[in-house]
Amino acid sequence: MSGKEQLTTEPTRRRLTERQADTVRRLTDAAVVEVGESGYEGLTVRNVAKRAGVAPATAYTYFASKNHLITEVFWRRLSALPPVEADGTLLERVVEVLRDIALLVSDEPELAAACTTALLGTDPDVRELRVRIGVAIRERLQAALRDHDDPKILGALELAYTGALVHAGMGYTSYARMADRLAEMAELILPEPPE
């Protein structure tokens, strides 16, 4: 490693140099295009590697499976969200957090469906990212709840989000509609504001 290359922390398997981080970025960008064209069923790490201009063996050093790769795409989008705003009412803050998360992939139906499937994968790398995703969502909800950080309310909101994600992933509703439904559930779950 040259003196100019710095290590970048990535949620893949290890700390990466800038060049390696660029390879990972190219692979995740290519995965989004590939899943949009081929769907989840047609997606392969090998095809993503080809699209990214990376050798398949290199791609597999970063991603153990297509589930790992697609879960990484979701993680990157979640991580890129701006911090939770402190303004607004309790309901407005919580709805905004749920809406932001629900709409991460809503404009890309093939990617959205792939994310739902991938997040349920059993690969160790997927499980690790799923934990990170869960923690990040919990932290965003806690930031929105602020002093209303009741574990029962937090748990109910997490279950509402997870259930809505699976519901949309099964094709029962669109991801855009899921955001509206989550707003409705937040109204039911959150305490009434004092009069």
Automatic annotation (TrEMBL):
Keyword annotations of the record: DNA-binding, Transcription, Transcription regulation
Domain HTH tetR-type: 21-81
InterPro entries: DNA-bd_HTH_TetR-type_CS, Homeodomain-like_sf, HTH-type_TetR-like_transc_reg, HTH_TetR
Gene3D superfamilies according to UniProt: Tetracycline Repressor, domain 2
DNA-binding region: 44-63
Pfam family, one: TetR_N
Coiled-coil regions listed: none
PANTHER family according to UniProt: HTH-TYPE TRANSCRIPTIONAL REGULATOR BETI, HTH-TYPE TRANSCRIPTIONAL REGULATOR RUTR
Protein name, per record: TetR/AcrR family transcriptional regulator
Annotated source species: Actinomadura monticuli
Upper classification of the organism: Bacteria, Bacillati, Actinomycetota, Actinomycetes, Streptosporangiales
